[in-house]
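Database export, one record per block. Field names are fixed; values are copied verbatim from the stored entry.
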Amino acid sequence: MGRNQQLYQYLYQTITTQIFNGTFIYGQEFPSQKEICQRYNAGITTVRKVMKLLAEEGYIRTAQGQPSVVAYRTSKEAIAGFLVQSREEIADAYKGLGLLMPILYREGARRCNESDLHLFDEILNTISEQMALSDHYQLANAFFTALLRPLKNQLIIDLELDSENYLHVPYVPFPGIDDPFATTVERTKTWFSKAIFQIEHKQFDDFYAGASGLYCASGERVDNYLYALGRYTSSSSKKNKDIHWFRIKGHSELYARLAMTIVRRIVAGEFDNEQYLPSIPKLMEEYSITKNTARRALSLLNSLGIAQTIDKKGSVITPEGDTSFKSELNWEEPVIQERLSFFLEALQILTLTARSCAASISFIPDGLGYSLEDRLHTAPDNRISPLSFQLLMNTFIQLLPYQSLKNIFRQLDDLLIWGHYMQAIDKSFYPDYSEMALAMDAVVTALKAQRSDALPDAFSNAFTLVYQNVCMVFSKFHCSTFDKRKNLK
């Protein structure tokens, strides 16, 4: 499927990439297992497995009771070549994240309390003349991570930590190339002091402008540095092409991602003229997966009311609005609660950042608005339609100009499949769908008129309404469930 790595494989490729690009150099003490857990937001079992692989492959050298040491030896020219080949991807990531992250920082800043501000002051007071450059960046990373924690969204923390690792570009000394990342204690303290002052005095727009400027300036500085490095490299340098930046880690199993892929194909109309969905053998062949994974994907589509498997015939698409698939779910089951939590977290990110990201859209393909209009059906019974929302999401991702944003939102989209559980909630808990229908119509209208300037408001309003409606449904449903339990006592 192109994204069927397990977490340990992703972490292994992330670390080896950082070995190739010079983040970890020969003879350097390698971080401890505890430090790896913290830096990459991974569990100890995963880290131990990765450390074992790194040692077996000769990337690190381990000894009982001693710190591990980087054993991979390479030249400055090879490191420079690896970095230069990443130039286009890194520039794209800076542009994409420059739209995404400052918005999240601002929303985190809005939610900061006295305890958070005290922590920021502690970080500021840690800065000293004796600090190495790497320590300056670790403090900055700690600051931004702490700034995001008030949002109480684990996916946002994952995104922050992954972006720190992916965007880290080490300095490789060559004649005539100065260190673009050099800074002073005074500059670092000034930046922190200004940011903390803005947060404390609720100057959130000024803080947002500063964070956006930081991304822009850093991206330009890194791009100029990588361009200069190109003078010392050859085109023969090879880069690991398998790494996929930003992973939703262990939050979405392979079979669930396959199920979501099938959902995307359904809303795109791929099976409109087909009697059945692809069979298990066909899925195994098409996606290079095991029989068990294909079977679990179809079973999930059945349990979510998206498909119905007919014995000895095949699986068909469930008519939209048919909720007979699952009239009752055990909402107290930890797995279901965890999945719904991921669904809400992914939806929250989309809601907070849609306006900023949609502002980057400049090209609208001819006929896209009419195509969306043809496929966008009003949900029956005044219910929010997951498939209609999926179509809107697909359109949004298609229009984004940066691969980094497409990558991030597509992986968040994998988690939105758990929103189909809501189909099992009685329709009496749902709000009037008319306002949502108008919001979707506004997106269609902007697309048909090729008004890219109208898309930020249109997409933002549509996604915000979905998020608000979903939260409202869950709130009413949980209150009703609690009242029923209370009456039974």
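Remark 1: Residues 7-232 form a domain with the Arc Repressor Mutant, subunit A fold (CATH 1.10.10.10).
Remark 2: The chain has three domains: 7-232, 249-317, 334-488.
End of record.
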